[in-house]
Structures are given as C-alpha cells and as structure tokens.
C-alpha cells in the first residue's frame, strides 16, 4: 500500500515518462518516411516493420502510463525498448566525428537512465491514481 504523497509522486513520474514517449511516437508518425529512412541508415533490420512497431510502442505505452494500465508490464517493456533504442540509435562506439559521438553518448546514457525510471515503475507499480488501483481487489473485514 502506498501513501497518498507517494502515489502523487509516482503519478508525476508516470506523466513525465509518458510525455516523452507520446511526443516521440507522434513525431515518428508525422515524419514517418524520415523515420523509416533513419532506421535504414542505422542498419535496423526490417525498418518498414520496425517503424510502425516503434511508434505503436511509444504511443500505446505512453497512454498506458498516463492511465496507469498494466503499469508494471508496460514499464518493463518500455525499459527494454529504451535500452534497445539506446544501442541501435545512439551507437557512439561506431562514430568517428567527435561532436556527433559526444551527442550520441549523452543520448545513449539518457536512454539508460529512462530505462532505470521504468524499472522503478516495474517495482512500485502505478500507485493509487491509476486504472490498476481501481482494478485491484479491495480488502474488507478485520484481517484485510
């Protein structure tokens, strides 16, 4: 059971993480051809299939975070996604131009930090301000 203040902080964390993914997913759809081209340039296999999958993960995952739906599972999926995108999208070890490499290093570690936030949500759950909390069985009686 979480205290009301804890639930508020968890809700704010869910919103902060969700905004990033909702915005990212929307931008991927709005510049879809460019995103597919980016994936091709990065050597992502099956870029034509990976692009809609990435946009869907970000949009559906972001919405699930806002609402607090299946938060533990969604957060774990998004943690894995953040690590995969760090490795595929910010491969600083393959870059030779110093300024590009420095930028990629920052983005790589930001993705890893975001994954850490998702892993915390995997452990804490959504808190009281969520669909998950509404669906949880309520204890009643003297022993509950």
UniProtKB/TrEMBL annotation:
Task: Tell me which GO cellular component terms the UniProt record holds.
Answer: plasma membrane
Q: Where in the cell is it found?
A: Cell membrane
Pfam families associated with the record: DoxX
Look up and give the membrane topology term: Multi-pass membrane protein
Question: What are the alphabetically sorted keywords of the record?
Answer: Cell membrane, Membrane, Transmembrane, Transmembrane helix
- TM ranges: 7-26, 46-67, 74-92, 112-131
Q: Which family does it belong to?
A: Belongs to the DoxX family.
| Name of the protein described by the UniProt record | DoxX family membrane protein
């Amino acid at each position: 059971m979480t205290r009301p203040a804890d639930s508020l902080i968890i809700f704010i964390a869910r919103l902060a993480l969700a905004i990033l993914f909702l915005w990212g997913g929307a931008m991927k759809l709005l510049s879809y051809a460019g995103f597919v081209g980016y994936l091709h340039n990065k050597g992502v296999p099956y870029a034509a299939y990976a692009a809609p999958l990435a946009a869907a993960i970000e949009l559906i995952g972001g919405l699930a975070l806002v609402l607090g739906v299946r938060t533990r599972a969604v957060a774990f999926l998004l943690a894995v996604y953040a690590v995969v995108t760090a490795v595929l999208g910010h491969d600083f070890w393959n870059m030779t131009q110093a300024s590009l490499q420095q930028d990629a290093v920052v983005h790589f570690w930001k993705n890893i930090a975001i994954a850490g936030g998702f892993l915390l949500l995997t452990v804490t759950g959504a808190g009281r301000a969520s669909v998950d909390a509404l669906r949880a069985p309520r204890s009643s009686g003297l022993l509950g």
